Amino acid sequence: QAVVDFERLSEHAAAFQGHDVGFCCLGTTRAKAGADGFIRVDRDYVAQAAELARAGGCKHFVLQSSQGANPHSRFLYLRVKGEVENLVQAVGFDRCTILRPAVLLCKRQESRPMEWVAQQFLRVVARVFPVAYSVPVETVARAMVASVLQPGKGKVEVLENGAIHELGKA
């Protein structure tokens, strides 16, 4: 494990060398970082980390994005997620896997009351529609690892929420 300063990421290039696979789950919220901070973390830091990983020899990059990611979206969150997907693909990895989970079900240390209410509701909905609107973070993690252990389906593979659930069972 290496601790890096994302504001000076290029100074930490050595931390990105010698790895065959890169996993990226980096992200923040607009509420926590503001619009500019959200863009810097969710797009710029991720793109720069991908570039450093590729320069360091990474062959397969696995990116956690978001359901609905679209570089042309009117919504900042979905637009930034779509933009970073394109930037990561453009880096030129031998293989790139992008996971687009729906609402992540997890326990957080920080207080997010509205998210907590939404998660409680989605846990009930998941009993009827188990793969439509949410996914436990443990399932996403298992799917990320499984995506590396199985043969790819092309240079770029995008896994939507249903496929994440399926692969997360593997």
UniProtKB/TrEMBL annotation:
Q: Which GO terms describe its cellular component?
A: cytoplasm
Listed SUPFAM superfamilies: NAD(P)-binding Rossmann-fold domains
* Assembly, per entry: Monomer. Forms homodimers during oxidative stress. Interacts (via N-terminus) with elongation factor EEF1A1 (via middle-region); the interaction is direct and competes with EEF1A1 binding to guanyl-nucleotide exchange factor EEF1B2, thereby inhibiting GDP for GTP exchange and reactivation of EEF1A1. Interacts with nuclear transport receptors XPO4, IPO5/RANBP5, IPO7, IPO9 and KPNB1 as well as GCN1L1/GCN1 and LRPPRC probably through their HEAT repeats. Binds NCOA5/CIA.
Protein name as it appears in the record: Protein HTATIP2
Tell me, which GO biological process terms does this entry list? import into nucleus
- Per UniProt, residues of the NAD(P)-binding domain are 4-150
- Give the domain of life: Eukaryota
Q: Which terms in the Gene Ontology molecular function aspect does this entry carry?
A: catalytic activity
Q: Which organism is it from?
A: Chunga burmeisteri
- InterPro entries per record: NAD(P)-bd_dom, NAD(P)-bd_dom_sf
